[in-house]
Amino acid sequence: MTNLLARLFVKNHQNTSDPMVRRAYGTLVSVTGIILNVLLFFAKFIVGGLFGSISIVGDAVNNLSDAGSQIISLITFRISTKPADREHPFGHARIEYVTSMIVAFLVLLIGVELFKESFAKIFDPIFPERSWIAAIVLALSIIVKLWLGLFNKRIGKRIDSAVMRATAADSLSDALSTGAVLIATLIMLLFPSLNLNLDAYMGVVVAVLIFVAGLRILNDTKNSILGESPSDEIVKMITGIVAKYPNALGIHDMIIHNYGPGHIIASLHIEVDGKADMFHTHDMIDNIERELRTVCGIEATIHMDPIVTDDERVNALRVRIDDVIRSIDDRLQIHDFRFVGGHTHTNLIFDIAVPFEYKHSDDELIRTVAETIRTIDPSYFAVITVDRR
User: Fold this and answer.
1) Strand 250-258 and strand 298-307: pairing?
2) Within a 13 Å sphere around the CA of 334, how many CA atoms are in the beta-carbon half?
3) DSSP per-residue letters across 263-307
4) 20 and 75 in one domain?
5) Among 191, 226, 261, where does a domain finish?
6) Which residue range is the domain that position 381 belongs to?
7) Inter-CA distances, 175 with 14, 144, 170, 203, 218, Å
8) Which of 185, 200, 212, 236 is deepest in the core (most CB within 10 A)?
9) Considering the entire predicted model, what is its pTM?
10) Most confident among 30-39, 249-258, 341-350 (mean pLDDT)
11) Reduced to 3 states, what is the DSSP secondary structure of residue 122?
12) pLDDT tens digits, 285-297
């Protein structure tokens, strides 16, 4: 069904890197969600009102909020495709993260209000009428919500959309909450003599499920706004392209900024032979930047780090120091190694790449490494820069 709708309503549907194709996908998903959620709202609101069920009415209001969220998503996709301008030199794609946060707060608000109303009904019960019509409407609603969740998830993965991933999570959570209401309705239908206000209790359950879904969306969006570690796929893509060039001797200090889908900016350092022809090396760097842009869609800025490659003493010492660093923790790596000899002492200048998970402080690590190096030769003086990543 997803592929059929994409072929029918999205021109060039396979070219998901095109902003206009992403916009078309966004329009398709948003309009579909608006129509289905509005239909579910009217069906549940009428049934809940007729039979006096607070949990069904609350579920209906949640569907109405979902329709509002889809309207926000529709507007978002139109804004996100706007080109960069003087005030927004990196484009407008990050508007999706802002929209996801708005959706999260709307979901949280619905959850809180429904919880308050349902909790009050536990102590002041109003028993709803029992009806198979309500059960049928709820069952159909679950099917629709499951399909909407999978639809948003598949398209969200296809075009890398935070808004659609948030909407998918919300839809699947709605299916669970509606399932809870359906269970309560069926119990009351199958056990008519049961004198228990299950409707109010299920209203509380629905409210909690809605609230948890809102928190999950908020957390995911928060990570996108604050900045996340790049995916393994992106890192492997960059390192794989650099590795194709034999004169690129090493790569480090890679920083990747995600300004929304299709807007990735990266900077990295590449070690090169210090005695190589500068123009040839610069030409290689240009080619790497061009390939990253055309193949991966990544705007990269590359810094060249010249290193000594033909001095056996320096090479052997670099290997020795690398062994020392790895003996402290095999996750540590050195780069930008330089050897500056003198009459009274020799400076060994290098950076240490340290994972964020490494527990010791930078000062402790520098002190440990410097003391260890001096055991190799008392005249060695380590000048170390710690690079947390």
Assistant:
1) unpaired
2) 26
3) -EEEEEEEEEETTS-HHHHHHHHHHHHHHHHHHH-EEEEEEEEEE
4) yes
5) 226
6) 311-389
7) 30, 8, 9, 14, 19
8) 185
9) 0.59
10) 30-39
11) helix
12) 999 999 998 887 7
